[in-house]
Amino acid sequence: MAITNTSYTGPNNAYLVKRKSGGGSQFSKDPLNLTNKHSRKVQDFTTLWRRAVGLLPAEKGGVTLITKRTKHQNRPAANRHEVTFAGNKSGPKVYKSVVNYTAKQNYRADLRQEAVARASAIRDSGRSKKEVPEKKVRGAKAKAAKKEDS
């Protein structure tokens, strides 16, 4: 029987988050896991995928693309590459850059859509929300009642 990294980790690992609510869902805190689901398909620390892609928020509404290299597998600090896209860049340009970078570097094509969705969510979370304006009084009776109150 071949021994893989998943057989070492067994049912537990440092990135695993188990929730009893929601039918016993299992999530992942791994920064290179775009879907945040704990499954063998999207885990980056197994030998199944030597390349992985992750997105993190950067300063001023930007997005940082983290890629795992095939070189230096035994040196975790050296096998990651980071590219930061500034927050002043338009959304479609950032998404196209993420897709082009992952495609040209031959990263997993099945995760491109998830990468764009994560980049979009990160940009939306960094944007400040507009304040809700005070509701206008409508109708003659409501306006008359408001004048009497004030």
Low-confidence parts lasting 5 or more residues at pLDDT below 50? Answer: none
**What helical percentage do the residues reach?**
25-40%
Structure annotation, total helices? 5
Percentage of residues in strands: 15-25%
* Backbone structural class: alpha+beta
Taking all Cα atoms into account, the compactness measure Rg is 23 Å
Tally of strands: 5
Element string (H = helix, E = strand): HEHEEEEHHH
pLDDT averaged residue by residue: 83
Read across the widest sheet, the strand sequence of neighbours is: 3-4-5
* Morphology: elongated
C-alpha end-to-end distance: 82 Å
Largest sheet descriptor: 3 strands, antiparallel
Protein architecture, described:
The chain has 150 residues and is of the alpha+beta class. The protein is 32% helix and 15% strand. The model has no long low-confidence stretch (mean pLDDT 83).
Short description:
This protein is an alpha+beta fold. It is built from five helices and five strands.
